[in-house]
Amino acid sequence: MSSLFAILWFFMAEINIFSLGGLQEDGKNLYVVEINKRIFILDAGLKYPTTELYGVDMIINDISYLLQNKDRIVGIFLTHAHDDHIGGVYNILKEIRVPIYASKFTMAVLLDRLKEEEFDISQNKFITVHSKSLLHFKELEVRFFDVAHNIPDCLGIAIKTENGYVIYTGNYNFDQNSKINYAHMYRELAIFAKEGVLALLTESLGAANDQSRGTILEFNLRIRNILSQCENRVIITLFSSDILRIQQIIDIAISEKKKIAILGRKTQRLVNQAMQLGYLKCPNEYLANLKFIDEKTTNNDKNLVVLVTGERHEPYFMLQRMAKHIDRLIHIESTDTIVILTNPYLGTEKMAARTLDVIYRVTTNVKEFKPDLLPLSSANREEIKQMINILLPKYILPVVGEYRHQYALRIVANCVGYSDDKVIILDNGDIASFLDGEYRGITGEAPIGEVLLDGKAFKDVGDVVMRDRELLASDGLLMLCANINPRTKTLVAGPEIITKGFVYTNVDGDLYKDIIDVFKKVSIQFLVNKFINWSEYKNALKNEISHFISKKTKRNPIVIPVLISTDIEATKKSSSK
Question: Cβ(90)–Cβ(119) under 8 Å?
């Protein structure tokens, strides 16, 4: 009887679905589907830091779970080329050699990023797929379908199990005015629905948006009106990843016989790749070659359209430089028209507001597109309903969004007949288990966490470093420099106090004198021994002086003692020889 049970268990599909990042946050999308112990990784993105994370360039997922189970990984399957979906791939490939599956454009962008990081791509498998691709992994199949988004070659991913498909949409919308490389294909969705969908992992970012959004046709009309009516230079801000919008503006500018300049290093790389692959088209005669501004060069041609691009805060930063006339290529003049197409991300709102204020001091010809005037790249309420109604999944798992977005998607699902127990809201690490096509609940928790990266040092910055940076930003630094003779155990020179960002003036003006007194009291304890324990000496100075400053001023600057061993007599003898 036990052997029969074991055979039945083998043929039951055991499926675990969880996220190592991307839930209840903005970015770091990495979803794991385990089917009969085999691991399918869906996307591997990064998250950009908020302003309080001083010096951090990006945040990626803790992949300790993947490292512990690397022998069970089938591959990484990517939906599209945005950083929040592919920016963490390099971190995984540094530790694990695992096949990568992506569309032609997504793969091109990924490989370019890996080469920039000096990764040897010959040491890993990179397989290009498309909507007609069918991959076999024993009894399992993986298929793909085109989705509309603001970057070319976006794919949804469908894993076929004996209990139905597990489908992950990535980001999508149903705007049917998109070009063919951005179009959504209904035929594949209908096939999945006919064969049965067990679980739908659908993005939830736009689930709370119940308002009508601007369409591509409306957007084109507004931009055309601006370019046709402006007699002077037009400067437009864009996010570098929005290739579709860049193409739209290029097309309109060409139709208005205007030259185009694209600024932004990262965007230029994306643009070059898109042009080489035929996803972005702009005749060379319409591309302006800007030179550095000098007495003869202003780059202020009347028929010029300048696209100012970048990630997150970069377009605002570049506009500020242009408005202050410190940029090397563009100086904003009163005759310029500024078009803002970059709604601020979380953490960049202050910079965006400040940028507008700086620009208005130079020119009042500012056209700021509000969110409801821009074609959204994420599905709104009605489009999510459309996706659900086409696929008719048994269970829905809201992904790619914060908790309020996930909850809003549950309300959307309720509107089309799904009860709350069929809409599974997870947090990062929660393991949703399915056995033989039925949801068993959250049966475990995968280890999760964040790795803070600074520059090219692909190592966690850590809590201690971040705490020090916060202290430096808020309370500054105080350094004490002193010369100690280790032979005579005497203070040769100093201590000299140097401060950066720490300014304190009391009525008596004795704070620094008192700090020196604390220094001398601590020093007495360590200069009476036969040998000086320099490490303990510095730690004692740091602790005592920090405590004293905090008690006196209610501030906590970073205290750094610098003790220099100086034996004057030994130096004299050495020099005389």
Answer: yes
